[in-house]
Amino acid sequence: MAHDDAVHLSRRERQIMDHLFRVGRATAADVLAEMPDPPSYSAVRAMLRTLEDKGHVRHEEEGRAYVYLPTTRRESARRTALTHLLRTFFDNSAEQAMAALLDLKGTKLTEAELDRMVERIEQAKEEGR
C-alpha cells in the first residue's frame, strides 16, 4: 500500500488487504470466509479487481482459481497505515499515539520492550527527528 491512495481504501478494501497481509495469499472465497458481515462473493471479486487496478494486489492463476497477493511489502503498508492513524486520530503526534498505546488496558510491556523504546527515542533525538 505504498500508493498515495492507500489511505483512501474503503473499509472493505482495507479488510481484504489486512487479510492478505496476514495470510500472504488467498482466493476470493478465502477472503470472503474471513470477512465480518460478508458481502456477496461477486462483490468480493469486484473489490479484488479494484484493488488490482489500484496496484495493491496482483493475482496468479492456480487451476481455475485466481490467488491474490499483496504487491507491497508489509512494512510499507504498516508505515502507510500508521501515517493515516496518526493524521486521523492523533493530530500527527507520535507522542499522543505512544501515550495512547501505553494507556491501553491489558497492555504490559516487558522491561526489554521498554528499553528498546527508550533506545529508539534516544536515536531519534540524535538524528534530530
Mean pLDDT over the residues: 89
Total beta strand runs: 3
Which stretches are poorly predicted, pLDDT < 50 over at least 5 residues? 1-6
Order of helices and strands: HEHHEEHHH
Biggest beta sheet attributes: 3 strands, antiparallel
Please state the overall shape, judged from the principal axes of the Cα atoms.
elongated
Describe it.
By secondary structure, the protein is mainly alpha-helical. The chain is built from six helices and three strands. The chain has a three-stranded antiparallel beta sheet. The two termini are 24 Å apart.
Element layout with pairings:
Blueprint: H1 11-23, E1 26-27, H2 28-34, H3 41-53, E2 57-62, E3 65-70, H4 74-89, H5 94-103, H6 111-126
Antiparallel strand pairs: 1-3, 2-3
Helix pairs in contact: 2-3
Give the tags.
129 residues; Arc Repressor Mutant, subunit A; 3 strands; elongated
Provide a quick synopsis of the model.
This protein has helices at 11-23, 28-34, 41-53, 74-89, 94-103, 111-126; strands spanning 26-27, 57-62, 65-70.
